[in-house]
Amino acid sequence: MAMPYALWSGGNSWCEYQLTTEADDLPAIRSLFEDPWFDGSQTIERVPIDLVPEPDSPRCDWSVSVRGWGQTLGYLDPETAQAWAPILRRVIASEFVPRTNGKIFARNYDSWDGGDEFSANVYINLGQPNEALPINDPPTLPYTLLPRSSIVQVTKEDLHTDVLLKFVPQAQGGHGVLFVTLHEQAPAASKSKPHVEVRIDDECIGQLTPQMSTRFLPMVRHLRDRGLITACWGDITGSAVAAEVRINGIKANEATDEVLNGFPVQLPRLVPELTDPMAYDLTAAAQLMRPNAPVKAMSRPVPPEPEDGAVVRFSRSNGRYAFAAVRRGHLWQTTSTSDWGAMREVMSWSELGARGRNFEQAIGWSDVGAQQHSLTSQKLAVVRFTIQGIYLAAINVADDGSSAGDWYTTITEAAEASLPFGDYASWSDIALYGQHIQVVTAWQGL
What does pTM read for this prediction? Predict the structure, then answer.
């Protein structure tokens, strides 16, 4: 598998480009979440994003898929894809995969008809094409590339205009990024302090101020003693007559032990830039550039069905609504008060198990005698009882701790006509007409 090449334009954490996601992309995006059936909203930060041209895609000749952890999350819009074609194809032709970073913000809610409403926004750190690849090649001598920190202006570029003008891009507004190297330079005058000389392709193009030099020199010397040149990100902006350069790299006081003594950070050399992006030889990456097969939509897993007579408690809409249900033969009677939408009065387990959330099965019971049990006044207390030999259950949704409570029962509309109350009751109704009343004392998650 090809190694990633980190695009220079993705060097910060700001993900400014919003991907247009289509319905076919959502299963792949959903699969990236640790729990694909989360309730509410979740965000995945710092997603490694690969930008892969797909020249055989039916979308367009410049089609670019956006892939996270190998899954296709969507595509760049056609205009953006064409603007990035020279960059991405050059990296692919060099047998690397263009990489940046992104984040995914997703929402998952229960729909009114029982399914899941999953949506997602994918943002990637794209930047500008003329800041994605360095104008020049990496240093030929051993070096390490510093992490970025803050921009520093190079001084005295006017003394090296003849060198600088060779690196000013002819297009793209005369702006581009490049490798620069930092070197300690002893002054000619013995009383002057050493300073940091800035070079491009080992040619001096300026220097840092004395004050700024002191912030880099301890690190430059340390790396030099390890046999390494100090390299960092730079950018150039210029015209036919003048140019200026800035650098971006951590200072000595910001350097970690990994930077100072760890493995050198080095970037590979890319194939030469071509004026025609279609001229790059992409043969070696043919398999990589094949469009991924669509990810199949997932079905929410259904917990195993409890035995006949079991009582369960569950919720919907991120816990906003709570229900109880009792198994009667091959069907379940629920505390729902309607016979339409996601929850109905009578349901099969395959329906109920897929639409409910956070199922618990009652595994402990206590008899409720003439005196009301202390548990029955608690919110989400569940009881079972019989009326006229009919096995029923009810759940208390009141949160005020009152003895009356707000009880919803498993009495169906069909049975309501022959019973003293229906799908809603107070505790006094249940205590008066119910027999063999028991309250749940222990639950077990399904």
Answer: 0.82
Are the beta carbons of 352 and 377 closer than 8 angstroms?
no
HSE toward the beta carbon, residue 310, CA cutoff 13 A: 19
Report which of 132, 123, 13 is spatially closest to residue 76, judged by C-alpha positions. 123
CB atoms within 10 A of CB 93: 20
Element (H, E) at 364: strand 357-367
Write the Ramachandran bin of 122: left for phi over 0, alpha for psi from -120 to 50, otherwise beta: beta
- With a CB cutoff of 8 Å and minimum separation 6, the contacts of 225 are none
Domain spans of the chain?
3-129, 143-261, 310-445
Q: What is the DSSP letter of 133?
A: S
Q: How far apart are CA 423 and CA 393, in angstroms?
A: 10
Pairing relationship of beta strands 143-145 and 195-200 according to DSSP bridges: unpaired
Which amino acid does the sequence have at 128? Q
pLDDT over 90 at 363, yes or no: yes
100-119 confidence digits (pLDDT tens): 999 999 998 877 766 778 99
| Residue range 30-67, pLDDT digits in tens | 999 998 888 889 999 999 999 999 998 888 889 999 99
Query: Which of 313, 333, 350, 349 minimizes the C-alpha distance to 414?
Result: 333
pLDDT tens digits for 156-167?
999 999 999 999
Question: What residue type is 354 in one-letter code?
Answer: A
Helix (H, G, I), strand (E, B) or coil at 411: coil
Q: What is the CATH number of domain 3-129?
A: 3.30.70
Residue 210: pLDDT over 90:
yes
Give the Å distances, CA to CA, from 178 to 45, 136, 189.
Answer: 28, 6, 32
